[in-house]
Amino acid sequence: MFDLHEPINVWVFFKGTVIQPYLFFWKGRQVKVDKINLVHTSRDDGSTVYHFSVSGGGNFYRLRFDLKNLKWFLEAVEESD
Description:
The chain has strands spanning about 1-15, 20-25, 30, 35-45, 45-55, 60-65, 70-80. It has about 80 residues and is mainly β. β1 (about 1-15) and β2 (about 20-25) form a beta hairpin. It starts with a strand and ends with a strand.
């Protein structure tokens, strides 16, 4: 898995207070989230940050959503061969 910190655009579903990434755009391609493997939160400069470990297209991704700035980032990628 290699670490990144690239801004991305994400389509999400909101179900009550639950955020579910559905699709994100990275390097000119669309990546559909097949499965959300893990979700946890952390605090960064007084803001709540959501971290999502997701699978899509046989690869694994770590997404970050900052509630203060309402911005998404791709934090890490593990691509299958």
